[in-house]
Task: structure prediction
Amino acid sequence: MNRRRRVYEGKAKILYEGPEPGTLIQHFKDDATAFNNQKHAKIEGKGVLNNRISEYLFQKLGDIGVPTHFIKRMNMREQLVREVEIIPVEVVVRNVAAGSLSKRLGLDEGTQLPRSIMEFYYKSDELGDPMVSEEHITAFNWAAPQEIDDMMSVALRVNDFLTGLFLGIGIRLVDFKCEFGRLWENDTMRIVLADEISPDCCRLWDIETEDKLDKDRFRRDLGGLVEAYQEVARRLGLHVDNPTQNQGGPVLVRSQ
Result:
């Protein structure tokens, strides 16, 4: 079995060298983490479900013209993606009060916000991903003003699309996190949506019951995380065979 060179390993994914220059293989792990990795567990099947759900959502976003790093899903746990220069800022879009926003502002969870709110967080596990402002982002040269505008524009477009998509299957999009990267093509650069969009980085509540269908099931010891992710996949019309089937790392892939 030929193994590819490991480029980067995060809490939930591993990036391997891709089959062609400018590509990477994104491998979804079964690791579940919370509170900046203070809580950690392996939940068999989680990576398979996130891979399939993220593939579906990225394809749908690509169909409406949202620029992304996604190329194609390769197998149960892996995607082929374009190599990008990740901007060290997480963009969080909030539609409903929940999580840290509720704690910071004393809002009851489930309170509908007067409008969608966008927040920025500096990507640093050591610092606990602190909230930052546009002033911080430009002062420390993490992103230029035009890049911030591009990220905000895409994030709001993603929010509008996903809100409607999930509403159609009885799910409330409470909030979500997205990441962006710089995609270089010859001498031109554009900002594209990167990383993943899955129940790991979205808060998804059943509209009728308010049951949580996301990683809060792990954060709050509610149990049934894989079952919740399976329910999201089912409502999206996705069929995932044997999500708990164990697979190793990526094998050599020949370009088509």
The chain has two domains: 6-83+225-235, 85-206.
